[in-house]
């Protein structure tokens, strides 16, 4: 039986860890070939080797800093050159530096906005012409913090409000050209998220208490399986008790 993404090509940013790595595995299992991107090349090579061993997918590794617009453009071009087109772009790379706004340094502020805002824009901008050609999917990693206030980190929250606003406005902009734009909004996920300012979420939360990366990857795989004319424009993947406590 043909896999749902057979013959399709994906690019996943932030694939060296957490949700991005799980998404790369999920898309490959669904039949897509893909390029995995992040800064840590060794991690990407390990992931690519694992995916090649466990699926029939072809995997390219392109080390990329998403805050570098030329590097992101080269990442997308390398993917199109290698695979002949682009059907799915997952704008996933992101991070949070938890400091009160009054104590956040310029550098910390620029790191968060550089990755979470500029990186999302650069990846979308480079991908859209190819996604118009393929009538493909553009996926953004938002957050519950992009739907509600996050007192612990207003700048991180604002980057996710930006992402959601960008995604829904882009859907309005490129939907008539056949592109589906999705924003996936999880609550806590057990990954390396949070490492920049303390313990990673995979250590802060017990297994079973919050979402696992593979569960977010399943949501992304569901979004990109949608065929024209449908688009999952927004998908909130919340812990069941989250709205009771926030
Ligand atoms: N975990 C959560 O609780 C949670 C909840 C809601 C939303 N999210 C969102 O989900 C996305 C993925 O996060 P995660 O939880 O999987 O965290 P993670 O395990 O820390 O992964 C973050 C990924 O982003 C990459 N990255 C960071 N800076 C980069 C840069 N300048 N250029 C390229 N890649 C960069 C990292 O790779 P390198 O360091 O190798 O570059 C890594 O692969 C983020 O957008 C995050 O905001 C996470």
Automatic annotation (TrEMBL):
GO CC, any one term: membrane
Domain (Ketoreductase): residue spans on this chain: 8-187
Pfam families (alphabetical): adh_short
MF terms in GO: oxidoreductase activity
InterPro entries, alphabetized: KR_dom, NAD(P)-bd_dom_sf, SDR_fam
Highest taxon of the lineage: Archaea
Coiled-coil annotated spans: none
Keywords for this protein: Oxidoreductase
Similarity field: Belongs to the short-chain dehydrogenases/reductases (SDR) family.
PANTHER family, per the entry: DEHYDROGENASE/REDUCTASE SDR FAMILY MEMBER 7B (PTHR44196), DEHYDROGENASE_REDUCTASE SDR FAMILY MEMBER 7B (PTHR44196:SF1)
Protein name: SDR family oxidoreductase
Organism classification: Archaea, Methanobacteriati, Methanobacteriota, Stenosarchaea group, Halobacteria
């Amino acid at each position: 039986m043909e896999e749902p993404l057979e013959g399709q090509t994906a690019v996943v940013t932030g694939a060296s860890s957490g949700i991005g790595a799980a998404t790369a595995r999920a898309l490959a299992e669904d039949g897509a070939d893909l390029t995995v991107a992040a800064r840590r090349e060794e991690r990407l090579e390990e992931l690519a080797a694992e995916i090649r061993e466990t699926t029939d997918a072809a995997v390219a590794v392109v080390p990329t800093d998403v805050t570098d617009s030329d590097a992101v453009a080269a990442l997308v071009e390398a993917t199109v050159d290698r695979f002949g087109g682009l059907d799915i772009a997952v704008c996933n790379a992101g991070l949070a530096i938890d400091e009160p706004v009054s104590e956040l340094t310029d550098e910390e502020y620029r790191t968060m906005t550089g990755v979470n805002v500029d990186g999302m824009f650069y990846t979308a901008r480079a991908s859209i012409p190819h996604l118009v050609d393929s009538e493909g999917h553009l996926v953004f990693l938002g957050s519950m913090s992009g739907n509600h206030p996050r007192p612990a980190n207003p700048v991180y929250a604002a980057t996710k409000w930006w992402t959601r606003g960008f995604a829904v406005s882009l859907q309005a902009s490129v939907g008539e050209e056949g592109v589906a734009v999705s924003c996936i909004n999880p609550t806590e996920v057990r990954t390396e998220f949070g490492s920049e300012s303390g313990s990673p979420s995979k250590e802060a939360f017990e297994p079973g208490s919050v979402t696992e990366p593979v569960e977010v990857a399943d949501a992304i795989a569901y979004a990109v399986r949608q065929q024209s004319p449908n688009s999952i424009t927004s998908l909130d993947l919340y812990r069941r008790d989250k709205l009771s406590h926030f």
